Inverse folding.
């Protein structure tokens, strides 16, 4: 997958979201500013981040 995409949880009521791209590294950018800075993460770092989110490690 080379294009940017938003989560399927993004709704019309709140279209602002981060966008992700899988192309070698994993790219992440703000959907409100697609021409702005995009961050790149290696696949192992991205997998660790997603696992931590799923485990609730970033909840208050």
């Amino acid at each position: 997958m080379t294009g940017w995409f938003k989560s399927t949880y993004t709704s019309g009521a709140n279209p602002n979201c981060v966008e992700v791209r899988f192309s070698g590294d994993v790219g992440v950018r703000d959907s409100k500013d697609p021409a702005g800075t995009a961050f790149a993460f290696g696949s192992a770092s991205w997998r660790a981040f997603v696992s931590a989110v799923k485990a609730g490690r970033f909840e208050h």
